[in-house]
Amino acid sequence: MSAPGQEWDENSPERLYVITRGRSGLAEQTTFDLVTLIVSRSEPEPSMQPEHAAILRLCGAPLSVAEISAYLRLPISVVTVLLADLLAEERIEARSAVPQAILPDRALIEAVMHGLQKL
Amino acid sequence: MDFRSSDTVVGPRSADLLPASATTAVKVVIVGGFGVGKTTLVGSVSEIRPLTTEETMTQAGAGVDDIAGVERKTSTTVAMDFGRISLSDELVLYVFGTPGQERFWFLWNGLFEGALGAVVLVDTRRLEVSFDVIGRLEDRGVPFVVALNTFPESPAYPTEELRTALDLPPEVPIVACDARTRESGRDVLMTLMRYLYRLSAPPAG
Questions:
Q1: What CATH number did the domain enclosing B93 receive?
Q2: Residue B52 and residue A70: Cβ atoms within 8 Å?
Q3: What pLDDT band is residue A119 in, cutting at 50, 70 and 90?
Q4: Strand pairing of A37-40 and A92-95?
Q5: What span is annotated as the signal peptide, if there is one (chain B) (predicted)?
Q6: What is the pLDDT at residue A98?
Q7: What residue spans of chain B are helical by DSSP H?
Q8: CB < 8 Å & 24+ apart, contacts of A80-83
Q9: What is the pLDDT of residues B20-74, one digit of tens each?
Q10: With 60 as the cut, is the pLDDT of residue A2 above it?
């Protein structure tokens, strides 16, 4: 297999368009926060798009959407499109970020303070 | 960003893996003017070597340039450095900071949504660069504390003088820090959490 990406301008919108098959990622951003934790639920398969397979390999242990983006060197909006595909096929588990509230939950803030005190 | 073929993607070091029991992640955003030390602060509190993520943003060119009558779109890549702190077997805190142009982060969908709060890192030698970010956080309703990154040659202002200069409400905490040290960075995050805790108190009466 030839190394993907070599004949592309690495930052070209066209290349990212191909990876996502033209989807913008805007819809998926409501499902995935930057810190939604992703865990693989299946092994990569040879027939899969390489980016999907790479995500499954990375997420043997929980990894945030932001970390996946950093390790794959793909923008967040591209990663969320790929994650939505995998979630629809039940190949990953998404441990959602804390539900949005107007003010943070007191118990959660207490847990964060407790953790910081141990640093 | 260049996607690496799936066989060559370098993932986290084994020492950097989160436990399988990690279920909840929260985030805090460090904001401030260029060169104020955001990346330094992220690096000093993070348990992993800071990583960089990117997003490409498109916005109408209005207000960006002055070519009268010509409407066009500009596309900008905004990079965000971030670090991670495991707070318990279940709970993980991510800290985001950006070296980029601050006006673009506010276009980043999902950066501030769901964030517990923000830290405005201020260089007292250049207070003016903080006005814009403080105003934008207030507009968005994101709770924040102000941390003064103390550089050796920084003028030492009394806190209340700074509060006036930055036009901050009396309840917003102001804390001095040395962004290079973990303890100091931890204390800044703790100041934010205590403030959030107070804000989350049920209204009296």
A1: 3.40.50.300
A2: yes
A3: confident
A4: antiparallel
A5: none
A6: 59
A7: 38-45, 102-105, 128-140, 159-166, 182-199
A8: A80/A25, A80/A28, A80/A29, A80/A31, A80/A32, A81/A20, A81/A23, A81/A24, A81/A25, A81/A28, A82/A19, A82/A20, A82/A49, A82/A51, A82/A52, A82/A55, A83/A28, A83/A31, A83/A32, A83/A38, A83/A55
A9: 999 999 999 999 887 888 999 999 999 999 999 988 776 544 444 444 444 455 6
A10: no
Asked if CATH classification 1.10.10.10 holds for the domain at A13-117, the reply, yes or no, is: yes
Q: Establish if B30 belongs to a structural domain.
A: yes
For helices B159-166 and B128-140, angle between their N-to-C axes, nearest 10 degrees: 70
Residue B140 has pLDDT above 90, yes or no: no
Judge whether B66 lies within some domain.
Answer: yes
Neighbours of B161 (CB within 10 A): 9
- Residue B131 domain-assigned? yes
What ipTM, to 2 d.p.? Answer: 0.86
CB–CB contact B110 A33 (8 Å): yes
Q: Do A116 and B193 touch (CB under 8 A)?
A: yes
Number of domains in chain B: 1
Contact A76, A28 (CB under 8 A): no
Enter the tokens of residue B119.
Answer: 């830290």
CA angle B95, B136, A98 (to 5 degrees): 40
Q: Is B16 on the interface with A (CB under 8 A)?
A: no
Residue A46 has pLDDT above 70, yes or no: yes
Does residue B188 lie within any of the structural domains?
A: yes
In this complex, which of B6, B93, B199 lies closest to A112 when CB atoms are compared? B93
The reported pLDDT for the residue numbered B57 is 74
pLDDT score of A79 more than 90: yes
